[in-house]
Amino acid sequence: MIEYLTSRNFIILIIKIVVIFGGVMNVVGLLSWVERKMMARVQMRPGPTRVGPFGLLQPFADLLKFVFKEDVIPTNANTLLYIAAPIVSLVPAFLSFAVVPFGPELQVTDLSVGLLFIFAVTSLGVYGIALGGWASNSKYPLMGAMRSAAQMISYELSLTLSVVGVLMIANTLSLRELVISQQGTWLSVIPRWNIFLQPVAFVVYVISGTAETNRLPFDLAESEQELVAGWHTEYSSMKFLMFMMAEYANMIAVSSVATVLFLGGWNGPMFGPPLLQMILPTVWFVIKVGAFIFFYVLLRSTIPRFRYDQLMKFGWKVLLPLSLANIVVTSFIVAIS
Amino acid sequence: MIQLLFIFFAALAVGSAINVLIQKHVLYSALSLILMLTAMSVLFILLRADFLAVINVIVYAGAIMVLFTFVIMLLNLPADEDGADRLRWLKFIGIPLGLFLLFLIAVTLWNVEPLRTAQTPMVGSPQAIGKSLFNDYLLPFEATSLLILIALVGAVVFAKKDL
Description:
By secondary structure, chain A is mainly α. Chain A has one domain. Helices cover 68% and strands 1% of the residues of chain A.
């Protein structure tokens, strides 16, 4: 890792960071529009239409509203942790993009342990939710935080174990090499993506990823009907905005990792002039990530929430044995061939 | 640059480690411990042990400490005001034990060969660690996993007295 700090290509690195960070920041804003619009369409409502064409400027209006709102800190809250919690949840969410390969050249660093880095960083994100709920010093946030902490520990296990099969096939932890290992096709029709080799792992990963990002079938931490708004009930203004941004950034991060691991990353058909060929990999990557995000939004607008005991049983008694069995079977096959 | 990073994160690790001890509130102690573990991970990275650094964060900061904070929040303990009284006699054992630890650290530092890590950059890679775990240290590795299994079974027995 330290080679990057002393390299001569420091300026290129800075440009890459600015491009990726700025891109993700803007997509996070756009996502809030996509989610509202899509959910509205599923439920036969028009969704945001007033601000700009198709309501596209709605995120800017929301941003202005968040910035100019009064920032309330509850009297009995633990001020230090109350302020720190949104930062603690936002920073890890954006850190994981440091290793995501958006294209052959568009990657900040390619760590030899890139995938583990993402898991390490996202595992720290739970502190933002837990501290936010606890520091608010109020019963609904505390209950939301408790649920979230237990849920994230349970599902992180199956999330991490589900990718082991892929790692055994690709024999690397670097995200870039994982993408390169999926180049080419079988019988010149089917792309060599890991989803065809590891379908069980893919399903387990997508379900656990939904739970890790606290998205709807698993959003027990937030569950509006019982807990008002869960762990961010007391938050307002910019701090609330930071929590929302962290959620969307986590969603993009989980989708990106799924794309890299199972859908061949930036791989796709290459054609056209050299300039187009430079952009195409990133376009494929964005399309694949977008498909995941569409899936998440559709999931949110169609499936009701789990009960808490169902959630725990499902995580420990279905997903975890499934991912363990997947590891055993895959290691047998890898050892034989 | 690397030395500056080392000094900063070493100071952060030591400072937060001290903070773990002097904080009255349990949750602040736990959070300082998390800060210490992440700072230690950066030190691992500076020693080119990337894998260890990341695993350190995943296992300790990301899993074990989440459970710690979870329990602390669930019990919602008040700040510990008179806890020092119960441990008064420990001071007399603490001083000689601390001196002994300092002595051990001094002996270890005296015997370390300088710049050994910089010459072998691949020592911290997942492959190297995996090979040494399953070849040179197979018995300790398996014994440790057995120990963890025993602890797991023990925890289940404690939790469910009538199985």
